[in-house]
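Anyone up for a design puzzle?
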């Protein structure tokens, strides 16, 4: 099996394309099952956030795996294969590992160094685990990616500025509202992004702050945690007319803020952080309504950590990629070594059976002594070579040793994983 990563992000697609690709949580399990049902895909994890949709897959071949993943994404999104290809990036083997680690540390984020991607990656991994679509290869990749992300944030100042997509959007809102401290605000949605919005607005001194959500219980719990006020979703129209700023981050598949709803409000700045978008397209140009969405953020936000911080994180990623590949090469040799020892045990057992037929007069103790002696000789003969081959396999290019052992001893080792250091494939465009 080989590693493949296929995705689209704010770098390669506008929000309209991303919202067609976005996978609601309610549909994630079905999509994961659809992926692993493909001929060349054995494992799958799908990461779907406000600014990226990525598939991490264990595949039996590059071209077949890529075709399978692209076909599933095209079928799900309704985007033609040729159009979709223009928005996708593709990483294979070592490059897929590096990309996963860069995502986990926030180097590939719209706001470099933002920490919420770790939680989103953890959620994606948990969903795949619950759907039983993550096997040995992706379990290890996801666990290591999460560990690398934590290490980068603990050992560097990559997130020292405390930036997030929400804080970046608030920076842009300042240009329209002026200082937001003391401004009245409403957060629509009480999920992960809604909670982050409430926390960020509270730190910025926004108030009064209100929260609404279709599930009233979640809104009440979030409001209690931050000293905000929960309002019934049925009162949304009324509250929109009473605030200066709205942050909308729901999981709705249809616009929550329609033209009819917004044209009855006073001048308003709306931060639409949802994918699919919460603001209806025909409402974005209403007089007095300023909408800042993911497209606007991608075009307008340029803040980044210091070069020294990103360089330090890059060094961590590089070292961890090497460590992961060494583990992978070592893991690849293990089934081959086990098969070699099994073959040796089988040969010893066969010779002992022959000996019993030729020398029936041997006692049980004598046969046991002969068996122990044969096993010790075989184990001593195999010990040094197998220890050494494990060491060699962990080095770059080490996958050749497993293949050589299989060829020399005619070993049948099914599903051998072969992930080597190869050049990055780059964009599929």
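Challenge accepted. My sequence:
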């Amino acid at each position: 099996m080989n590693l493949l990563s296929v995705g689209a992000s704010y770098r390669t697609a506008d929000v309209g394309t991303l919202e067609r690709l976005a996978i609601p949580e309610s549909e994630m399990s079905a999509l994961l099952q659809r992926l692993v049902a493909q001929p060349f895909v054995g494992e799958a994890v799908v990461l779907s956030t406000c600014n990226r949709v990525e598939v991490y897959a264990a595949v039996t071949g590059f071209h077949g795996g890529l075709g399978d993943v692209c076909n599933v994404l095209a079928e799900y999104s309704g985007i033609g294969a040729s159009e979709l290809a223009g928005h996708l990036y593709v990483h294979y083997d070592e490059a897929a590992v590096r990309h996963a680690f860069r995502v986990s540390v926030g180097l590939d984020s719209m706001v470099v160094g933002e920490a919420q991607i770790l939680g989103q990656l953890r959620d994606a991994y948990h969903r795949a685990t619950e759907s039983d679509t993550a096997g040995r290869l992706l379990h290890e990749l996801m666990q290591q990616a999460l560990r690398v992300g934590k290490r980068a944030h603990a050992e560097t100042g990559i997130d020292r500025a405390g930036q997030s997509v929400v804080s970046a959007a608030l920076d842009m809102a300042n240009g329209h509202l002026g200082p937001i401290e003391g401004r009245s605000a409403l957060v629509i949605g009480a999920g992960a992004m809604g909670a982050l919005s409430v926390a960020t607005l509270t730190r910025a001194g926004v108030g009064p702050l209100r929260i609404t959500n279709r599930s009233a219980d979640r809104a009440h719990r979030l409001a209690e945690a931050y000293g905000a006020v929960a309002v019934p979703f049925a009162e949304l129209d009324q509250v929109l007319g009473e605030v200066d700023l709205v942050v909308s981050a729901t999981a709705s598949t249809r616009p929550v803020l329609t033209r009819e709803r917004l044209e009855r409000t006073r001048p308003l700045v709306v931060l639409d952080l949802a994918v699919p978008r919460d603001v209806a397209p025909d409402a974005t140009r209403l007089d007095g309504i300023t909408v800042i969405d993911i497209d606007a953020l991608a075009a307008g936000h340029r803040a980044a950590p210091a070069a020294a911080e990103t360089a330090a994180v890059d060094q961590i990623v590089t070292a961890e990629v090497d460590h992961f590949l060494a583990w992978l090469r070592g893991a690849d040799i293990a089934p081959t070594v086990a098969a070699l020892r099994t073959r040796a045990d089988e040969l010893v057992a066969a010779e002992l059976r022959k000996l019993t037929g030729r020398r029936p007069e041997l006692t049980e103790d004598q046969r046991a002594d002969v068996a122990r002696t044969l096993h010790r000789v075989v184990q001593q003969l195999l010990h040094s070579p197998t220890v050494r081959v494990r060491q060699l396999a962990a080095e770059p290019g080490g996958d050749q040793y497993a293949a050589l052992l299989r060829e020399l001893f005619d070993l049948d080792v099914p599903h051998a994983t072969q992930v080597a250091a190869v050049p990055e494939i780059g964009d599929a465009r």
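A detail worth pointing out: Residues 165-300 form a domain with the Rossmann fold fold (CATH 3.40.50.720).
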